[in-house]
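Board notes, transcribed. Complex of a protein with S-adenosylmethionine.
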Amino acid sequence: MSASPLGFALLLDGLKAAGEDTRLRLLALIGEGELTVSELTEILGQSQPRISRHLKLLAEAGLVERFREASWVFYRRAVDAPGAALTDALLELMAPDDEVLLRDRERLEAVRAARAAHAQAYFRAHAHEWDAIRRLHVPEEQVEAAIHAALSGGRIGSLLDLGTGTGRILELFADEMERGVGIDLSAEMLAVARANLDRAGVRNATVRQGDIYSLALPRDAFDVVIVHQVLHFLEDAPRAIKEAARVLRPGGRLLVVDFDPHDLEFLREQHAHRRLGFAPEIMESWLAQAGLVPQSHRLLAPKDHGKSGEGRLTVSLWLARDPRIVRAEAQHNKEVA
Ligand SMILES: C[S@@+](CC[C@H](N)C(=O)[O-])C[C@H]1O[C@@H](n2cnc3c(N)ncnc32)[C@H](O)[C@@H]1O
């Protein structure tokens, strides 16, 4: 992750903010992942007002970023804030085997273990629902391989996963992307995603709370957007596609993974599915209305579909592209010709 260098005044402010015992330790901890004020208070064993004051100074200097999720306030290392370059450099310079930092990291692991246990308890309570649906379609590995194949073709700069759920898509692309962001409406699912990403050692992805219909993200920001098994829960899928298209960079790609039309009414009654799959032509018209150009469509039918597998689920993958670069390239080619 490369950040822009800093001017003299910002560098001085940043160094002053970082140049204090507790704040440097806070920076080291936040470098390991997103943490709440109360988690940082627990790790460092100091009072909450004191920790909050230090965090405020680090945030004002642009070394860390603060964001709210329901009643919780999280801190993460600066990525978009001006101090990102200094944060990156300071974290790089910290010896991983330093005694102070090692002790803090041990306490961090204990806090994370408690957080993961809490998240897993929530997930376990709902896991049967996911499993029941998974059993109805081709194995998950096959779907994941198809997602990879659809997006093959080089490293991804920035990836946005809408309705991230367990954070699985971010984990899947961790080695192929520079930076990943997952959005979900549910604070409980975000806790599950954070625990999973921590466990998998994924450092280049963050998750945050947000609504797929109205993303608190700038336009033209992501190279790839993925919407995996989310649209069938929504009242207004085309609106979600338009919002996904808004945040795509020129030439960026949107991958929608959902179901082909089916007749499993119980998914509506018991699992809150709003739509029983989507016909390819409907999805393609929504993609076109959002200003995207459909690129490919693939169906993954269950093996015994049509025999004993009547009524089972066929997974459908649509890939579409923002045409703006394509137009610029075409213009360029016309000029060169
Ligand atoms: C079946 S799970 C998604 C699975 C996930 N994409 C994956 O690949 O494993 C659907 C997710 O969509 C989220 N969701 C539903 N409506 C949403 C909305 N309006 N905005 C953001 N997330 C939403 C739910 O909270 C849930 O975590």
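Residues 163-166, 168-169, 183-186, 189, 211-213, 228-230, 233 surround S-adenosylmethionine (CB under 6 Å). The beta strands are 35-36, 64-69, 72-77, 156-162, 177-184, 205-209, 222-228, 248-259, 293-300, 315-321.
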